[in-house]
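FORM 7B: Structural annotation worksheet

SECTION A. Query
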Amino acid sequence: MLFAVELDRRWAADGIRGYAVHPGIVMTTSLGPFLAEGEERTPWLDDDAQRAMGLVDEAGELVIDPYHEKKTVQQGASTSVFAATSPLLADVGGVYLKDNDVSPLDESPQRLDFTTEQNPAATVVPHAIDPVSARRLWALSEELVRAGTAEA
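SECTION B. Predicted structure
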């Protein structure tokens, strides 16, 4: 989020906007690393873990439940497409996008209880959009990249 804030501050005047986009949980992509011929991909979660998280049902079929963030590829891509193409966002940047909308600021967020079926809030907390922190993170990242390329 902080990178989107700083990117937008730096280049909005040039028509380049920064967004942080949440696609949801999309289990059906093949966006992982490419494997050498004959090499099998190791799943990041085994079948039991996927069932325990409600990502697949007892038969091993994907659970699609957009209300609980579990989306199809098309549903997961829609907010990124919205960010790239919507004229509604022409004058808006440095924001968090979720479910094809700008997430509102929440001045007093509630703690998540991961032991319940509670859905994560679709809001942004103040420290996630703090412009001073955004500038500091950007500057630190530039410094680390310069240091990394100097050593290479």
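SECTION C. Observations
Residues 108 and 142 are 32 Å apart (CA to CA). The chain has a mean pLDDT of 87.

SECTION D. Sign-off
Analyst initials: ____
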